[in-house]
Amino acid sequence: MLKIGAGLALLGAVTCAHAADLPLKAAAKAPVVAAAWTGCFVGAQLGAAISDDKIRSSGDFTSTGAAAGGQIGCDYQFAPNWVVGVGAQALWLDLTSRTAGRLVDFATGAVVPSQFTVRNDFLAAATARIGYSFAPTWLAYGKGGAAWTHEKSDIVFTLPARPTIDGKGERTVTGWTAGAGVEWAFAPHWTAVLEYDYYDFGDNAFRLTDPRNRGFATGSLKDRINTVSVGVNYRF
User: Fold this and answer.
1) Distance from chain centroid for Cα 202
2) Is the residue at 24 inside a domain?
């Protein structure tokens, strides 16, 4: 009985030694789940705006400012990595551009210096987009559509033997937009977005008036805006 017990104890020791020599398996990583882009979203964005303007009495002039707002839209995924969608966005701008120029008094032929200011305080767009999901949680896309901006313009000048004229006006103008971006699905229902957009509102005539001093100025403004923004969307 003693010999058998010793033999069993020895066998147990050898078995334990062999078990200790077995390689340990690494824990399996959770698979990356591909994002499903079909659905609708709502989100917010923050970024920078850069103006690229021109009026008849001066050359190009630019300025930079802040842009903040939100977006909403819907997407449909097909074939199987392509995505199409529609969306709308609205941005509040802090964008003011100024330039010095010269005006002609048609009554006398006098040429006088002027100071022109344009402020863009609102920007909106309705667009369609097409994208390609190049990785399980990444989407690259291009977009384009109609755009609107609200402008407040001001021009200051002094005619000979007249008080200083400060003509003002405001309007909403329509143009077009095109842009591109990438979207990353970083959590269930949540995505982060990096986007660039170009807005062109054409060359539009303006008339700025100063009722108190009975003066006015006419001209033409070519208004273009670039924006770069980061945002976050909730998808449902």
Assistant:
1) 20
2) no
> 71 near 234, Cβ under 8 Å?
no
Q: Residue 21 in 3-state DSSP?
A: helix
Task: Tell me which residue range forms the domain holding 111.
Answer: 33-235
Distance CA 113, CA 181 (A): 43
The pair of three-digit structure tokens given for residue 1, joined into one six-digit string: 């009985």
Domain CATH code at residue 92: 2.40.160.20
The number of folded domains in the chain is: 1
Q: How large is the C-alpha radius of gyration of the chain?
A: 32
Q: Hey, what amino acid is at 119? A: R
pLDDT > 80? residue 150:
yes
User: Cβ neighbours of residue 118 under 8 Å, at least 6 residues apart?
Assistant: 51, 53, 96, 97, 151, 152, 153, 154, 221, 223
Distance from C-alpha of 111 to C-alpha of 203, rounded to nearest angstrom: 23
Task: Give the global pTM.
Answer: 0.85
* Rounded Cα distance, 194 and 45, in Å: 9
14 within domain boundaries: no
For residue 122, give the amino acid letter: F
Answer whether residue 98 is part of any domain: yes
H/E stretch holding 19 reads helix 2-21
Res. 58 pLDDT band, cuts 50 70 90: confident
- Pick from 194, 202, 198, 192: nearest CA to 234: 192
